[in-house]
Structures are given as C-alpha cells and as structure tokens.
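Quiz preparation item.
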C-alpha cells in the first residue's frame, strides 16, 4: 500500500471507534514516512505524493495514534506493545533540529507535527513500565531532549518536557548499559542544555516544577556521582 492510498484510509479513520485494528495501519504510515524521508522538503514519496503532502499524512497518522492512546488504557497498551514508541521516536528524529523554530508556513506545519509526536510519546510512556522497552524509551527520550533543546519556549518544548518526565525512568535500564561502556546516554547533553535553559527562563510555577522534576529524574537515572550531561 502506497502513501497515496494510505492517505484516504487514514483521513477516513476515526481512531476511537475501534482502535486496536487500526494501530498497525497508523504505524505503517509512520514507518513509510521514516523510510521515504518525507519530513524532508526535498524528498518525494515515489508515487506522486509531494513531500509536504506525505508529511501531512504521517502527521495525520500520529494524531490518530494519539487518539488511540488517549481513548483508553487498552488502546494505549496495544499501541505500546506494537512498537509505537520506537516508531514515533524514529519519525521525530527525521525532523531537522534547526527547522523547529523556523517561521515559514511549511516549517510551522512540521513544528505542529513534532508537537503531536511528542504528545504521543508522553501518552505512550504512561503505560506500565513492564510494557515499555528500555531501548525504545531511550530512543524516545533522545527525541524529546533534542526538541527541548532545539525549540525552547515552544509548545513542542513543553510536550518534550512532559514526555521526559515519564520516559527517563523507563530509559534507566538502557542508560545503565550505556554507562557501563563509559559514555553518557544519548539524551543527556540535550536534556542538560534544554533543562538549564528552561530553569534560567521566567516560567509559570507549574512548568518550573515540571522542569525541576525532569532534572531530578535525569540525575537519578545517571546516578548522583555524575552531573547531567557529563562524562565520567
């Protein structure tokens, strides 16, 4: 099935009606978007669907997955067990960091898609820890930390902060393996920079509390002997 045929299917789907059977479809769209690089303005889907339109289809799929995850805990858990967290992280990673604060119409649309993807990550990360693979959580935490640092003060950064609160504890196992090799986890540097920038800014009290909680969680994951973002 091509992105053009998926386009109509996704846009006709109401995710809350029967979420479980639709999850593979939505994930298939995101996987295709990753493979085709449809978040890149210079790419083409190969079936006549323009890059901007292909990216919009992927954003629709992410929004549908968010609807599934928000509709019920069962729908969320089905999505998590289907690998939605890792696929979403891979899709988010396809967006260049330096474009997240651009003001062009196309990039504003992409920034909205990134915000949806980060919100989806946060929803998926609320699943029981036993369902969330540590490697997927680390990949998702890396995508969230990158958005936190690349787009400070934006809706995407706030969603990144929210998702990090849930993702960092789940990423702890993968971080311990990485630390065994004497290297910081891939999210550490961006998380340090992003959280430091947030805490230096004038934030509403609830957002400052979120930032402090995320910073404390990151330190717990890395251990008290290591400053967030540092190497041994």
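Solution:
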């Amino acid at each position: 099935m091509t992105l053009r045929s998926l386009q109509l299917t996704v846009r006709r789907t109401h995710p809350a009606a029967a979420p479980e059977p639709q999850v593979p479809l939505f994930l298939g769209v995101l996987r295709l978007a990753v493979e085709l690089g449809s978040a890149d303005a210079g790419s083409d889907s190969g079936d006549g669907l323009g890059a901007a339109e292909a990216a919009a289809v992927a954003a629709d799929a992410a929004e549908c997955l968010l609807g599934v995850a928000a509709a019920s805990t069962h729908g969320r858990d089905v999505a998590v067990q289907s690998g939605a967290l890792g696929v979403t992280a891979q899709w988010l990673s396809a967006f260049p960091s330096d474009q997240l604060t651009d003001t062009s119409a196309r990039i504003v649309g992409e920034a909205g898609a990134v915000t949806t993807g980060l919100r989806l990550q946060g929803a998926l990360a609320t699943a029981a820890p036993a369902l969330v693979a540590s490697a997927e959580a680390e990949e998702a935490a890396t995508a969230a930390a990158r958005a936190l640092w690349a787009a400070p003060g934006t809706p995407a950064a706030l969603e990144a902060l929210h998702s990090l609160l849930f993702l960092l504890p789940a990423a702890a196992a993968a971080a311990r393996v990485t630390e065994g090799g004497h290297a910081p986890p891939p999210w550490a540097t961006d998380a340090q920079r992003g959280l430091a920038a947030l805490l230096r800014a004038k934030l509403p009290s609830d957002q400052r509390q979120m930032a402090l909680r995320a910073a404390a969680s990151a330190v717990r994951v890395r251990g008290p002997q290591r400053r967030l973002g540092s190497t041994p």
